[in-house]
Design a protein that fits this description.
The complex is a heterodimer of chains A (about 650) and B (about 325).
Chain A lengths: L10 E2 L2 E2 L20 H22 L13 H19 L3 H7 L23 H29 L10 H21 L2 H13 L7 H19 L15 H6 L3 H29 L12 H32 L13 H35 L6 H14 L17 H11 L1 H15 L8 H24 L1 H7 L3 H31 L5 H27 L14 H31 L32 E2 L15 E2 L21
Antiparallel strand pairs in A: 1-2, 3-4
Chain B lengths: L1 H22 L10 H34 L20 H28 L18 H10 L12 E8 L2 E6 L5 E3 L2 E4 L3 E8 L4 E5 L4 E5 L5 E6 L4 E7 L11 E7 L1 H14 L1 H6 L29 H5 L6
Parallel strand pairs in B: 1-5, 4-10
Antiparallel strand pairs in B: 1-2, 2-3, 5-8, 6-7, 6-9, 9-10
Helix pairs in contact in B: 1-2
The chains are: A mainly alpha (about 650), B alpha+beta (about 325).
Chain lengths: ~650, ~325
């Protein structure tokens, strides 16, 4: 970009001087001097060392962690230094630093070619693809840890890992997966397709959008640092007295959630502002694609629930480093405080994961049924309803914890109420299938699997919300299976549907259908064979996160473990398909391979930098598959295949 | 569609009846206590409601996939006409039916929770649903004046103490002795007072259908009534550190006279040990070394000070 956004409007003697476009020379450094992943790694490393040294310097002889020679202040400062170094190295802080010192900031250089994926890039399409890789990295790391858990559970007594390693693996698996799942759809699919779907040229805040990705990757490094620090024993919930007691890796957990939380808050504000302000003319709320509704309701949760987690993590970090007592009962704090703050975030969080998944199935199913989405209004109302209600259910995680007993009927009621708007999603799906012309392509199969899995996950959720039954199933494998059915069976399957559906648009290459079918069927079958036995295991009394269990549960656990290994293998199939279809034997995708009416398919292929040469005028909702003679979806101007890479005005340029 | 509805009703009714009468009586957690029986009933009722939902949705989806699958290669023509139109009646009835069902389920759950005196779940320090006489039993237990006799309506107060990574039990009615075995009399209302000495545990007596988190400095109370003799397992169901997986032991429900014999015998056998224990209290503050059961040096008034206790040098 060569057009600067600094357009001061000076008022001289009552006359408004029209803004002058100041052209700045493009400052393109040679590759080895520019900022990229390599400089980010280098600066992150230096930042870590600097922070660690500084921590030891200011708090010398302060062995803050019980039973451990390590100094938690220097541990924390090292991680802070690493994150800041990482952001500095990638170039995420150039603009704000220049602004802080009152200088005119350089606009970011737009690199072309493959190297742009390794740089701080403001294009939402690049960020979307970066997120795909980032999320898959999280997913595969967490998946490998899951394999380790299932390996340990092959035997009720023989131990492959020692107890400390096992609990570290369990905690790391849970935390990595939870962090990943918060961004699994809104990151890759949301960043890439929300502007395209609403007819915008870019996100509202491109720098914040790129920041949210790079701090998400920093969060990966921070939470991964827990393993070399020895792992933390608290599970992903990090309950407090254990948290206070735990070793240095707890700092990684608390700070990791804070870092990922920052990214979530940033992404939430960015996407919400984009959807609210950047809709093309004619894109009324009633025409908004249902996926965008899902994302919009998610952003409400991201922006309102995540700050609570950030604050809770900050308290925990203060407890661990400078010995405050927010969560220390003996010194006037309360371990209930953490439980409440954590779940006040934690329950909206599971809907942060679920809602974009609902949006995806609502978006994909009409394409493969050739029918308008059934009950569009109910679908969007359902998602908003879920988002609202999700703030009022958190104490159902504390039913047996000794909370005020008369709170329990209230939270039982609110929790069961949330199944009403969730049920709307089923109404929408079933109504759309009714008398349709169903094509069973791979994305459609994944969507149908979401319905299959999420039904089991949802129905078992009603069991969990019922306080008397909760006494039986709380804290056991039943609840474990329940949330894997909703999060993995629902959201990871929806993510796969989205990848098979939209990767042709994102990369211009089709995913191989045969491998895709193999991937789908193995993933679907082995997912169910892995997790369905866990309902029975839980009902028979096996608590979560144990490495020793009753001998009579050996067969069920082994069955689940073997299925889990095969489920892991199905992810290798996916990976093989991805490599095959994208790099080894790419097959060029047609412009609109699924014959979707969605606006995102109407742009040129590959998508020009500014998406639309003219902002389209939206004339209809994107689900009018049926009505012969319906108004076309949008007016893209005479020539809707945009070839020019730069927009005709600067009004939408990212430097604003 | 009419045929599908008939199939749905028939299959649902058959499955429900099969489940309720064949599987139902064997569903976890068994029938060893009143809370187990009641929660098993609740589980079965929820299952009876859930099965038709599962059958209905799956049947519809299967039917749709078979009947309305596009047989043609390539992209099908768009679906037009009435099949593509919205159906306000279906939407409204879906919303109403699900809402009514959900609210009824919530009401059912609340009624069962209250009727069963908290359903064996931890009610916190101030339980509001409890068997008659629980408050007096509490006061007596704390004063060391509790009584329990066979063939009476006495509530047996038992304290459950969780610590990393072990369960122990105190019987205030019998001099406050501490045991590693949880022995309970049959046909007796039991009041579990669950607390912890370090981190959060969760007391899960599986067959008794009692689950209550053990929080440090909090007394979490749960009630149940034993109705069958037998063994049960106690596990920790809240992650409490690295040996969480091995934090379990076994307990027994025995006849009332056997219990009385065991309790009085253990009371006298353990008397010397009991004298060294802190006086019975609902919660305990860990002592200087974080070990179990200590009081503050001056009798629970001032928080512990290592300097006062040990001089300037702290114990390693």
């Amino acid at each position: 970009m060569t057009i600067s956004a600094e357009q001061p409007t000076e008022v001289v003697a009552g006359n408004v001087v029209p803004p002058v476009l100041t052209l700045r020379p493009e400052r393109k450094r040679p590759g080895w001097l520019s900022q990229h992943l390599g400089t980010a790694i280098l600066c992150g490393f230096l930042g870590y060392i600097l922070g660690h040294w500084f921590g030891n310097y200011i708090s010398n002889g302060y062995p803050a962690i019980a039973n451990n020679g390590q100094n938690s202040i220097s541990d924390l400062l090292a991680l802070i230094g690493m994150v800041i170094g990482w952001l500095l190295g990638i170039g995420a802080l150039n603009y704000p630093i220049a602004k802080i010192f009152g200088r005119q900031a350089n606009t970011e250089v737009e690199y072309e070619g493959f190297s742009k994926y390794f740089r701080y890039n403001l294009d939402h399409k690049v960020v979307g693809l970066q997120y795909v890789v980032g999320v898959l990295l999280f997913l595969f790391t967490g998946g490998l840890l899951a394999m380790a858990i299932r390996t340990e559970l092959l035997s009720p007594t023989t131990h492959i890992f020692n107890a400390g390693t096992y609990i570290a693996i369990v905690s790391e698996h849970g935390t990595i997966m939870m962090m990943m799942a918060t961004s699994i759809i809104i990151g890759p699919i949301g960043n890439y397709f929300v502007p395209l779907m609403i007819g915008a040229r870019r996100m509202a805040f491109p720098r914040i959008e790129a920041f949210s990705f790079w701090i998400f990757t920093a969060g990966y490094m921070v939470i991964f640092s827990a393993l070399p620090f020895g792992g933390f024993p608290t599970g992903w919930t990090g309950y407090a007295p254990l948290q206070t007691q735990a070793g240095p890796a707890m700092v990684s957990y608390l700070f990791g959630f804070a870092v990922v939380g920052l990214g979530m808050i940033a992404a939430g504000f960015n996407v919400a502002c984009t959807v609210i302000n950047y809709r093309a003319p004619g894109m009324t709320w009633g025409r908004l694609p249902v996926f965008v509704w899902g994302i919009l309701s998610t952003t409400a949760l991201l922006t309102l629930a995540t700050p609570v987690l950030f604050g809770a993590g900050l308290f925990g970090l203060l407890d661990k480093t400078v010995q405050t007592a927010f969560y220390v009962n003996e010194h006037g704090g309360s371990s209930y405080l953490w439980e409440n703050l954590f779940w006040f975030f934690g329950h909206p969080e599971v809907y942060i994961m679920a809602l974009p998944g609902f949006g995806i199935i609502g978006e994909i199913i009409p394409v493969f049924t050739r029918k308008p989405l059934f009950a569009y209004r109910i679908a969007s109302a359902g998602m908003i309803g879920v988002a609202l209600l999700s703030f009022f259910v958190w104490q159902h995680h504390l039913f047996q914890s000794g909370i005020n007993p008369d709170m329990r009927p209230l939270f039982m009621l609110t929790t069961e109420l949330i199944s009403i708007p969730t049920g709307f999603i089923f109404l929408v799906g079933m109504g759309t299938l009714y008398k349709a012309k169903i094509r069973l392509e791979v994305p459609m199969l994944f969507c149908l699997a979401v319905y299959f899995n999420f039904l089991i996950g949802g129905v078992t959720g009603v069991f969990l919300s019922d306080v008397p039954v909760n006494v039986t199933v709380h804290g056991g494998f039943f609840v474990l299976s329940h949330f894997h059915y909703t999060i993995m069976g629902g959201i990871v399957f929806a993510f796969m549907a989205a990848l098979y559906f939209w990767l042709p648009k994102m990369t211009g290459k089709m995913m191989n259908k045969k491998l895709g079918l193999w991937h789908f069927w193995t993933m679907f079958v082995f997912f169910n064979l892995t997790f369905f036995p866990m309902f029975i295991i839980g009902l028979l009394g096996q608590p979560r996160r144990v490495f020793t269990y009753a001998k009579n549960l050996t067969f069920l656990n082994d069955f689940s473990s073997v299925s889990a290994f095969l489920l892991g293998a199905s992810f290798l199939l996916f990976f093989a398909n991805l490599m095959w279809s994208m790099f080894i034997s790419p097959e060029k995708a047609p412009a609109n391979p699924w014959d979707s009416l969605g606006l995102e398919w109407k742009t040129a292929n590959p998508i020009p930098h500014y998406n639309f040469e003219r902002i389209p005028v939206i004339m209809n909702d994107p689900y009018h598959y049926s009505e012969v003679g319906a108004q076309p979806l949008s007016d893209l101007g005479d020539d809707n295949m945009v070839h020019s890479a730069s927009p005709s005005t600067s009004s939408n340029s990212p430097a604003n | 569609m009419r045929r599908m509805t008939v199939i749905w009703i028939v299959v649902s009714v058959v499955l429900d009846l099969l489940f309720y009468f064949l599987a139902g009586p064997h569903m976890p957690p068994g029938r060893m206590t009143t809370s187990a029986q009641s929660d098993q009933f609740d589980f079965n009722i929820l299952m009876v409601v859930a099965l038709p939902v599962l059958v209905g949705v799956w049947e519809f989806m299967l039917y749709a996939l078979i009947t309305w699958r596009s047989k043609r290669a390539g992209v099908a023509e768009p679906v037009g006409g009435p099949a593509a139109a919205g159906n306000r009646k279906a939407e409204v009835s879906w919303v109403i039916i699900t809402s009514v069902a959900v609210v009824l389920l919530a009401v059912f759950g609340i009624v069962e929770l209250i009727a069963d005196q908290g359903s064996g779940g931890g009610e916190g320090p101030n339980p509001i649903w409890q068997p008659a006489g629980a408050t007096t039993a509490d006061a007596a237990a704390l004063a060391g004046a509790g009584t329990w006799a066979p063939n009476s309506n006495d509530i047996l107060v038992v304290q459950v103490i969780g610590q990393q990574w072990k369960w122990t039990y105190r019987y205030p009615t019998f001099g406050g002795f501490e045991s590693q075995k949880l022995i309970l009399p049959n046909n007796t209302n039991i009041e579990f007072n669950v607390t912890s000495l370090d981190v959060i545990h969760s007391f899960w007596a599986y067959q008794l259908e009692v689950k209550a988190d053990a929080n440090p400095l909090v007394n979490d109370v749960a009630f149940t009534k034993t109705v069958q003799l037998g063994k049960f397992v106690v596990r920790c169901s809240e992650l409490c550190g690295i040996w969480h997986g091995s934090m379990y032991n076994y307990g027994k429900v025995v006849s009332q006279s056997d219990f009385l014999n065991w309790a009085t015998a253990t009371e006298s056998k353990n008397a010397a040990n009991t004298a060294n224990l802190p006086a019975f209290a609902w919660t305990y503050v860990p002592d200087a070394n974080g070990a179990a059961g200590g009081f503050y040096p001056d009798g629970n008034v001032t928080p512990y000070s290592s300097v006062e206790t040990y001089g300037s040098k702290q114990p390693s």
